[in-house]
Amino acid sequence: MKKRKLFSVLIILVTLLSSIAVLAGGHGHKRIKKKGILLVAFGSSIPEAQVSFQNIDKKIRAAFPEIPVRWAYTSSIIRHKLAKQGKQLDSVEVALAKMMDEEFTHVAAQSLHTIPGKEFHDLRHNAHAFSNMAGGFDRILVGYPLLAEEEDIRKVVNTMMKHIPKQRKKKEAVVLMGHGTSHPSNAFYAAMMYHFQQKDPNIFVGTVEGAPGILDIKEIILNKKIKKAFLMPFMSVAGDHARNDMAGDEEDSWKSILTAAGITCVPILKGTAEYDDIVDIWIDHLKETMSHFE
Predict the structure, then answer these.
(1) Interatomic CA distance for residues 43 and 49, integer angstroms
(2) Tell me, what DSSP letter sits at residue 241?
């Protein structure tokens, strides 16, 4: 009888201690599951480039109508430029801190970068740090950028083939401008050109800050005796790089370099995020990420 009473007292004590621990840890209430999406882009201060971000925002809100969407720009230079114009854009860290304050429990931080370069890896590192904070998110996951694996390359190539200007003839070149980086992920651009050239040997992919550069592309075009080239950005927005480095009138722009070599240039100022079927690839990555919250 005494053993039975002692056992009952122990059960009551354990139950009370467990209840106190739960109340202390949760401030007296259980957290309600609240999912959110953070869209993370490099950013742009060019007004005409905002059409790309507007298209992404519209399509993602349509795909996830019940889930709040927030934005962050990874470029501090762009954020400071916009701040001077009276437009406030958050860094990833500030945006996530605000989402913590709004009591989001599950957050998908979707990269809108083109390749998984340094900025993507910084995003993953910093985003995951928030899950280890006291009172932080129950779970935070980062969605892959446009190109993350071989299948993404095939999808993007097949999709971009549909957006080659209709007036372009087979013996004319198409030159896609990527950003480029010193990060090993720069290899994605060379892989893209390989896949493009399996479909059309006169489509090239160059980069502003990596390899291959425009001088490499120029030599190939000259060797093929091509006289006309369509220049297209392979970036989510047709921002500063597209308007100045690609299509500008300065002597070191891609248009000027090719024109000086006797190649007629036709710039197409349209970012990849203006094409709905390209945005769909980012959305597929986001859907995969969100599925882990179910």
Answers:
(1) 9
(2) I
> What's the CATH code of the domain at 109?
3.40.50.1400
Inside any domain, residue 107: yes
- Name the amino acid, one letter, at 92: V
- pTM metric for this prediction: 0.87
Print the SS3 string covering 158-189.
HHHHCCCCCCCCCCCEEEEEECCCCCHHHHHH
Residue 157 to residue 151: CA distance in whole angstroms? 10
Q: Active-site residue 285, yes or no?
A: no
Please tell me the total count of domains within the chain: 2
287 in a structural domain: yes
Backbone φ, ψ for residue 20 (5° rounding): -65, -40
Q: Which of 27, 80, 113, 179 is catalytic?
A: 179
Do residues 142 and 183 share a domain? no
Task: Let me know if residue 195 belongs to a domain.
Answer: yes
In the structure encoding, which two tokens stand for residue 43, read together?
């950013």
User: Angle of helix 118-129 relative to helix 92-101, nearest 10 degrees?
Assistant: 30
63 assigned to some structural domain: yes
Cβ count near 87 (within 10 Å): 10
DSSP code, position 89: -
pLDDT tens-digit series, residues 207-240: 999 899 999 999 999 999 999 999 999 999 998 8
- Nearby residues of 90 by Cβ (< 8 Å), 6 or more positions away: 70, 71, 72, 73, 79, 98
pLDDT digits (tens, 9 = 90+) for 21-51: 333 344 445 678 999 999 999 998 888 888 9
CA distance 208 to 248: 13
Residue 56 belongs to what domain range?
A: 35-147+276-291
For residue 118 the two structure tokens come to 């340094």
